[in-house]
Amino acid sequence: MVLSVGISKTMSIVIVVLLIAVVVGGFYYYSSVTAPPQYPSKPITFIVSWAAGGGTDRTARMLAALLENMTGWKTVVENKVGGGGTVGHLAMATAPPDGHTVGIITFELSTFEWMGLANVSYKNFKPVLLYNKDPAAVIVRADAPWRDILELTKYIKENPGKLKASGTAKGGVWDIGRIGWLKAAGVNPDALPWVPSTGAAPCLQELVAGGIDICTCSLPEAGPLIEAGKVKALAVMSDERNPAFPDVPTLKEKGINWSFGTWRGVAVPKDTPDYIVKTLHDALKKVIDSPQWKEFMQKNGFGMAYLPPEEFAKFLENDYKVVGELLKVAGYI
């Protein structure tokens, strides 16, 4: 009887130990199977659709550099230029959805489908965050004869087709800025022909070289050449003056009721897992909240902005609709 009881107790202990081993082993197995893969597991490539030296490129490189410094993640910036921004945006949208290819999406994303340039829109992405908004400005060579925006606008009206403007692709943000400025001033936009460009940087180079007469782009993009005394800004298309360029008046100050600009943000392919989007967002939010980022943006005159994934998604949907209406007004579609 005593022996039977002893064996029973021993068996009970063995069974309990086995059950615990099964449960713990199952837990670790389940965790290993269901745990998301480590991210990032290799360098993160930021794709920029515009030329090196422009505003998108400069902000992207600072974003990537600070992200690497603050997290230890390796980052690379690639410029995939062409097709008025379609080449880069298509590369972003069709990249593996593993978070290792990150896109710097820009205003032009809202135009591609409307213009029939490429079958890519906000619907192909998961937004991570919006980090910048910048109004357009009217830039001319430093030795240009026009003292202000009113003189230039009058000259365009009285000499249709004599001057040429550039800044981005046809139907791009700076082109729409030109169209809105002239329409608001009572001038036919056709009076100032548009020369398509791959971005602000090559446009400004062409302006200085004398190949074009006007460049519409953001003040920060033109900033280095303004400081060098090679170009001058006649007006900015915003409601208020830019603190970094206090001497540049707004169109509204001159009686032209028009404001318009661009935006920049970070996004990944639409099938990217949510945990990767969150990881990226949280890391990048720390970057744009850092003193280094704020100093860079303020020093260069870039407008600071922020929208988290959900709000950025709503912003993109609305922007797509508004841009379609503007392109119809411009006669492009």
Question: Any overview of this molecule?
Answer:
The protein is built from 11 helices and 10 strands. The chain is an alpha/beta fold and 333 residues long. It has 2 domains: 44-134 and 261-330, Bordetella uptake gene, domain 1 (D-Maltodextrin-Binding Protein, domain 2), CATH 3.40.190; 135-254, D-Maltodextrin-Binding Protein, domain 2 (3-Layer(aba) Sandwich), CATH 3.40.190. Strands 1, 2, 3, 4, 5, 6, 7, 8, 9 and 10 form a 10-stranded mixed β-sheet that branches. The protein is globular and about 70 Å long. It starts with a helix and ends with a helix. Residues 1-7 and 14-33 have low confidence and may be disordered.
Q: How many beta-strand elements?
A: 10
Q: What is the level-2 CATH architecture name of the largest domain?
A: 3-Layer(aba) Sandwich
> CATH first level of the largest domain: which class?
Alpha Beta
CATH fold descriptor of the largest domain: D-Maltodextrin-Binding Protein, domain 2
| Backbone CA Rg | 27 Å
Shape label? globular
Order of helices and strands: HEHEHEHEHEHEHEHEEHHEH
List keywords for this structure.
11 helices, 333 residues, globular, alpha/beta, 2 domains, D-Maltodextrin-Binding Protein, domain 2
Q: Helices and strands in order, then pairings?
A:
Layout: H1 2-34, E1 44-48, H2 55-71, E2 75-79, H3 86-93, E3 101-106, H4 112-115, E4 125-141, H5 149-158, E5 165-166, H6 173-184, E6 194-195, H7 200-209, E7 214-218, H8 219-227, E8 231-236, E9 261-269, H9 274-288, H10 291-300, E10 304-307, H11 309-330
Parallel strand pairs: 1-2, 1-3, 5-6, 5-7
Antiparallel strand pairs: 3-9, 4-7, 4-8, 4-9, 4-10
Helix pairs in contact: 2-9, 2-10
